[in-house]
Amino acid sequence: MSNYFSEAELYETQVRTVYGFFVAKTYDKQLAEDLTSDVFTAVFEQLRQPNHQVEDPQKYLYGVMRLQWLQYLRRKYASQEFAAEDVEDFAVYATETVETEQQKSLIDRALPYIERLPSSQREVMLLRFRDGLELRAICKQLGKDMNYVKTTQRRGLASLKRLVEGAEQ
To answer: With b meaning 16 or more CB within 10 Å and e meaning fewer, what string describes 139-169?
Structure first.
């Protein structure tokens, strides 16, 4: 280990940064805590190895953080499991081709919450659900690729769910 950092100093100076990174990426505080713990555990295990030399523990920590994030993504997308909360009634109702009164009412009730979303999520959600555009049309209108639109829509749905749950409490 470098003379510049003890394990405690490294942890104290970097834990907020690592945790903040994972919260920003996952929008899930519990998962962010788990990933942060995994990062520091892996770093400290390596730094305690007798023949392991690290010139800059902070850079090493960030490398491990990135690797933990990529491993998490691989596990998440390899399992192809979808939790019940991932399937939103709002998304199902709003994407039907024939709009019923129930769907219109649901969209109208969701609009005040959609307006509170971050601008990129709000824009995609309004184009998709209020205006009824297909994903390809949204890509073309925004000049973005399909991955961006799908990811932004998914994040928008997750944010919308949190907003609605917060309002119910």
So the answer is: beeeeeeeeebeebbebbbbbbbebeeeeee
pLDDT at residue 34, rounded to an integer: 94
Q: What number is the average pLDDT over the span 68-74?
A: 88
Q: pTM of this prediction?
A: 0.46
Q: At what angle do helices 101-114 and 146-168 cross, to 10 degrees?
A: 90
Q: Does residue 64 contact residue 42 with C-beta atoms inside 8 Å?
A: yes
